[in-house]
Design brief:
binds zinc ion, 29% strand
Amino acid sequence: MKINKKLDSLLGHIFGANKNAFSEVQIDKEVVEEILQIAREAYPNEFVALLQGKVRGGVLKVDGLIFLPGNTSDEGAVMQIFMLPLISDAVGSVHSHPGYSASPSTADLQFFAKNGFFHMIIAEPYDLDSIRAYDAFGNLVDYQII
Ligand SMILES: [Zn+2]
């Protein structure tokens, strides 16, 4: 409840309306499988991609990935995105961490705050249990895989 309230006010500020407010997140199974595969292939580098989706009836549905040039890096992939607001249907980001922590770094939190409203981090061993999702403030968000 607290999170949604904060999200509402943030999104209201950014988009001038609450049309993108959501209380539930659904992610396509294929998207999750692609994330797992790419994270494993990119290792030991990080990969980063944008999440494509839509909010309808209070449900955020993530149904695709958008790749940008230079989407893997050994020096903090997440810093290379700066065009997110210009890409339609982008709701946030996903990136991988080498190591076992899927907690956002300080740089990640700064990025989350400025780019979209839903973000995922996947850590080793790059399986379903090593994925975490966050809102723009770095608070954990639950999601369903459908
Ligand atoms: Zn990170």
